Amino acid sequence: MLRQLGKRLIASVIVLIAISIFSFALVRLDGADPARMLAGELASDQEVEDMRVRMGLDKPVVQQYLTYMNNVLHGDLGYSWAFSMPVSELFAIRIPQTLRISVLGILWACVFSIILGVIAGIHQGSGVDFFAMFFAVVGQSMSTVWLGFMLILIFAVKLGWLPVQGVQGARSLIMPCLCVGFGTAAHQTRLMRSGMVDVLREDYVTATRARGISRNKTYFKYALKNALLPIVTNIGGQIGRLVSGAVVVENIFNLPGMGQALITGINQRDYQLVQSFLLFTAALLVVCNMLADIVYTIIDPRITFN
Amino acid sequence: MKTLTRRDFLKVAGLSTAAISAMALAACGGKGETGTPSTSEPSGNKPATAPVSDGTTQSVTMEQAAAKEETWTEADADKTVVYHMGSTAHTLQKWTATGGDFLGSQMYCVYDGPIWVNPENFEYENYLATDYQLSDDYLTCDVTIRDDVYFTNGVHMTAHDLWWAMENLRASEYYPDGIVKAWRPYLDSIEETGEYSIRIKFTKPMPAFVANFGASLQIMPVETIESMGWDAYWQCPVGSGPYTYDEVDLTNSKVTLKLREDENGYWGYRKTGYYTNVKYLTFENSPEETTRIASLKTGEVDIIDNVPTSELGNLSGIDSISVNVLPSANQVFLQLACGAGDAFENKDLCRALNYAIDRELLVSSLMDGFAVPSTCGAQPGYYGYEDAPKYEYNLDKAKEFLQKANYDGREFRLVYTLSTVSNGNEVAQALQMMWQEAGINVKLEPLDVSLYDAARDARDFDIVLANIGASAPYQRLTYPEVIGNDKFNTGYQNEELRGLCQELQITVSPEKQTELLGRIFEIEADECQPNLYLYAPQKIFACQKNVTNILNHNATVLDCHAIVVND
């Protein structure tokens, strides 16, 4: 397994290098001039040129990339021109906020969807099953922006139960987390339900019941484990969606996380901030997928790491 | 568990959908107010006679304030106000920030300027200055400031501090030319002529001198900066205004000011008679306007700005909220590529574009009346407006000019960005349809701000939908800069107009400025180049009704230094 893990690590590094090149090129493709933007609309050509030199944009693109990657490997993610601070410092301030709502969002989504999906799968055709399917369809088709504003209007403006925005203790996280995890919860409910329905039709489940093993033990010890596999796969892939969802949600609820910073960075062509964020997200995705693969082998010993 | 039939499911789903829809509709403004805002009338169709606000920006009268003078002390202030706005800043340096309103509002609370615009009558008045004298040739100005002013850290303000603030603008390693363009080319020398007086020598007459001599100058205690160092000072700067920085979180664009508590107190309250009962004043960026409005409704926030006109009906139906309109300080306009070989080199084509635009309709339908249609290059009440020929909407004339121009049906590119014209999509689409009616084909190209700037720099456009600040002090400079120097790269060539603009740049006399602007507008209106002005949008802010005494100095920025929260 260690050997396979080593292979996966090498593959991951290659993926990350490819992503670093891609993100480096992507932010530069639109032809905008960040030096002009930073120097201001009224700046003279000479001032813009000076700014370009200060930003290191006067150098050949390949050299810029190699310098950036060399710095990244030494723990330096570059300097954010938009925020006037090192990117790593900005990450240290902003990422905890983004992770908080992303992790809490995926947590409630997992717990809720597994419980609802299992009950719906066991009681196929029941009211709970219909509710689960209804939730899955509505939840997946609902826009995060619309949901966010609806939550604000209902729970903050009309009912006055929760604060509209900002970081004001645990209560202020409820709506953003609901919003971030809603789509994931809906998707996973559907997966969990169909997984459970499929597994319960397997012969080994019938055999287990025939051997006199209790219904609950059959469902939760034998069936659930197998039904969880698609969920595990899905969670690994959902990280990217959660982070992108957090970008929108942070703006709606005015939470000072990476999402807000990223939008500022994109608008101001803050190359190093955007590149580093893309790289960070890609690394997160790679790690999560690898963890999902490891969890597979634990849940289902028939599956090997390779 | 009971098994449900498909019919049952449909019932459940239908009921759930209905419930969700009902909640959503209720949340979207259950009262269903669609009436006209009651708090302030749009002034779009009511040209002002002077550059004053048509809105209902509240301000306490001097009599009211004076009545409080006998008993008021800073210790009485115990209220908190939270102001959410749609702009950010990542530094407290006015000259290097792109902070816009975020820093602009703080300037009035933390710093004082030698001159201010009286919020009661919008006249320029001495503030820190006790006197200023411009020489007859407008090349020298002697300024004397008050002798009883202390910075919030206890340092006594002298002429040296004012000298230093200006010297920095004249020749400093701190600010690039582009940033202090309104100052640097004009400043020849600044010398201290006494403990409280300085003499400023100009390289050429500076028409906007008085207007620029306001709170945005950021007069700082020199000895503090010298002892702390430039960068350290800007972590928590001090001024002579009524508030000090209490908490600064620029990464998140959040700043809390605290009412000064030093023994010297704020000199300005004694001068103006204004007072405040607000101890803490928080400015915070809140990017989503819907979120800002929701926060105001729940009372989490006391003041919000940039309220969309579509929300006014809803907001004005709420008893606890007041909606206010600030005077127009911007112009939304079209910039045409009209250099040799450009799409609009032909003046008749430009005239056709112009006659096909129904500006009144734009204002009434897209701005809900909260804008002033631009019937010429100036806004009502400003220099040159009265005598300028007015734009006209005439579809027949548009078609006539189109024929004269031998228009071959080619498609023009209109570029715009939502960063400068927030309802740019709607405006651009409306223009496209108006032009289509006249037979002009236009393709819309929405761009993000950096690409928009790049397109403008490279003259990679036929038409640009743009927005320019044209507040009272700057409007006189806008024309020399934008038209005379072709700042936005339209390629426009007209030596007469250029000469007039250059003359305007160094003209101080209001009569002469009016005359020059009149001539400039005449040429522009005749040629319809290089710009076609559309409308001047009004800025709308809303606050809790118990928050009063928000001052306005005929600008889009609010002055909260004397804000009052009533019980």
Walk me through what this model shows.
The complex is a heterodimer of chains A (306) and B (567). Chain A is mainly α and 306 residues long. In chain A, strands 1-2 form a two-stranded antiparallel ribbon. Chain A folds into 2 domains: 2-87, no CATH class; 90-269 and 286-299, MetI-like (MetI-like fold), CATH 1.10.3720.10. Chain A is built from 13 helices and 2 strands; from the N terminus they run ααααββααααααααα. Chain B is of the alpha+beta class and 567 residues long. Chain B is 32% helix and 20% strand. In chain B, the strands form 6 sheets. Chain B has a 7-stranded mixed β-sheet with strand order 8-9-10-1-11-19-12, sandwiched between helices. Chain B has a 6-stranded mixed β-sheet with strand order 14-18-13-17-15-16, with helices on both faces. Chain B has a 4-stranded antiparallel β-sheet with strand order 4-5-7-6, with helices on one face. In chain B, a hairpin with a 6-residue loop joins strand 2 and strand 3 (124-126). In chain B, helix 17 (495-505) runs antiparallel to helix 18. Chain B starts with 5 loop residues before the first helix and ends with a strand. The relative contact order of chain B is 0.16.
Keywords:
heterodimer, A: 306 residues, mainly alpha, MetI-like fold, 2 domains, two-stranded antiparallel ribbon, 13 helices, 2 strands, 77% helix, 1% strand, flat, B: 567 residues, alpha+beta, seven-stranded mixed β-sheet, six-stranded mixed β-sheet, 23 strands, 32% helix, 20% strand, globular
**Strand arrangement across the biggest beta sheet of chain B:** 8-9-10-1-11-19-12
- Give the N-terminus to C-terminus distance of chain B in angstroms: 57 Å
Proportion of strand residues of chain A: under 5%
Overall body shape of chain B: globular
What helical percentage do the residues of chain B reach? 25-40%
Mean pLDDT of chain A: 86
Helicity of chain A, in percent? Answer: over 70%
β-sheet strand percentage of chain B:
15-25%
Named CATH topology of the largest domain in chain A:
MetI-like fold
Tally of individual domains of chain A: 2
**Greatest chain-chain interface?**
A-B, 56 and 50 residues
